[in-house]
Design brief:
Largest sheet: 6 strands, mixed
Shape: globular
Distance between the termini: 35 Å
Number of strands: 6
Structural class: alpha+beta
Order of helices and strands: HHEEEHEEEH
Strand order of the largest sheet: 3-2-1-4-5-6
Radius of gyration: 15 Å
């Protein structure tokens, strides 16, 4: 039982994405997972913060009616620097495992994870992603 709990709570973005992709590929009918994962930073209780990773699928029973599925929710962090370090480490691992997936961070602008760092995206992409991320709040 302890091993099961350790595995459950030690999950990463990469592991959860692999499980989701495996589920979608093995389901009948087959479902698909979007090519972008949106990361948003949220405020928790007692001045803590956490981030969540959301992906769009064509399977409404996994998430909300639009197919938005919360893939990952981080632990709570007391400061933004620790949160960003954890997020970057998680995304770097997942980007290495899934090179065709784009990781987009929504925080005072829109940033794409590329070559191991967060790079601000263009205005046209920002407008499109604002529509997406506003639906997740």
């Amino acid at each position: 039982m302890l091993k099961f709990l350790e595995k459950l709570f030690a999950s990463t973005i990469s592991r959860k994405l692999k499980r989701l992709k495996d589920y979608c590929e093995n389901s009948k009918p087959k479902y698909s997972v979007g090519k972008e994962i949106i990361l948003t930073i949220n405020n928790g209780a007692d001045a803590t913060q956490y981030y969540s990773a959301t992906v769009i699928t064509n399977c409404s029973h996994l998430g909300d009616a639009t197919g938005a599925y919360q893939l990952f929710k981080s632990p709570m962090f007391l400061n933004l620097e620790s949160l960003l370090n954890h997020m970057t480490q998680q995304v770097a691992e997942a980007a290495n495992d899934f090179p065709l997936i784009n990781f987009i961070k929504y925080q005072d602008g829109i940033f794409k994870f590329s070559n191991g760092e967060w790079v601000e995206t263009s205005q046209s992409k920002r407008e499109r992603l604002n529509l997406i991320t506003n639906n997740f709040k």
